[in-house]
Amino acid sequence: MSAADRLSFIAEGLPIIHASSMGFWSASAELREKPREAEVLEGFAKEEAAKILILLDAVRCPEKRIAGKLNKLLRWFYGHHERLIVAQLAEWWFSNVADLRKSVEPLRKVHDLEGNMGEFIVPNSTLYRRESKLYADVEAYEDGTPVWNAPVVQPTGFPAHMPAVVRVIDAMAVCGMFALAGLKAASEVWGQLEFQETETLQDAERLTQELLARLIAEGLPNESATQNHVDALYRHWPLPMYNVDLDPIPVTLEELKAEQDRLYWAEVGDPR
Predict the structure, then answer these.
(1) Alpha carbon distance 54, 87 (integer Å)
(2) 8 Å CB contact between 243 and 97
(3) Could you tell me if residue 91 is inside a domain?
(4) Whether 116 and 181 share a structural domain
(5) Is the pLDDT of residue 120 over 80?
(6) Which of 24, 38, 27 is nearest to 156 (CA)?
(7) Angle of helix 164-174 versus helix 227-236 axis, rounded to 10
(8) pLDDT tens figures, 66-105
């Protein structure tokens, strides 16, 4: 698929994904009396929104590099875990790509430790939270003892708050970024710089500013666009991730046991 055809295809799909995400979010906000169902729908909204950020990374990637990145980005597009990581990143700020890469690493581990001294071995928390809310299922303790998981979520008492990843893709839509002309502008502006390691938040802000000026000059933003939408772009559009690895990191039982020992003796004092 040529670059022009790829942009046209993405432009066709972005409004569809945006509508799907906003539909899930709207339904979630109506179900505050059913917190489990509300959180499940909110999770769907976030994953759909993350798909848009993944596709936008394909747009932001310099054309000379995209051939080597597309397969990875497509895996992310279809992967629950990768989409949840991308959604989480919209909540955080990073000084540069190296900082982003370091922050992502704990989210990639297949298993981790929890408890005051790491006494519990647990599945990847990002993926586990999704699955445990979605399904009634059988789980197993470390010794193999099976237990039932009831997908229960306690009400928070707080009003519904649009997740950052949903907020930023809605801002993109309002600012005209999903139109073919908007995607062409994004590709040309962001394609000037490959984000590899030391490229910074300031670089991203400069390119976002340049893109917004281009969108305005071409008359693409919706009449409903406000400063809040602009702020959402600056605050919640993560640095380009096409040079970051989101693949799961296997962790062996031996590694987990060794880390448990280290945490235990660090807490009680190593007598050796």
Answers:
(1) 10
(2) yes
(3) yes
(4) no
(5) no
(6) 38
(7) 130
(8) 999 999 999 999 999 999 999 999 999 999 999 999 999 9
Structure tokens at 161: 């708050």
Contact 19, 173 (CB under 8 A): no
Do 241 and 89 meet the contact criterion of CB atoms below 8 Å apart? yes
End-to-end CA distance of the chain: 63
What pLDDT, in 10s, does the model give residues 186-224?
999 999 999 999 999 999 999 999 999 999 999 999 999
Nearest to 246 by CA among 127, 112, 95: 127
Q: How far apart are CA 41 and CA 48, in angstroms?
A: 11
Q: What pTM value is reported for the model?
A: 0.90
Cα–Cα separations (whole angstroms), residue 256 to 74, 141, 251, 270: 31, 15, 7, 18
90 & 35 share domain: yes
Instruction: Write down how long the chain is.
Output: 272
Specify the range with the lowest mean pLDDT, choosing from 2-11, 110-119, 189-198, 225-234: 110-119
Whether 102 and 138 share a structural domain: no
Closest alpha carbon to 154 in 24, 38, 42: 38
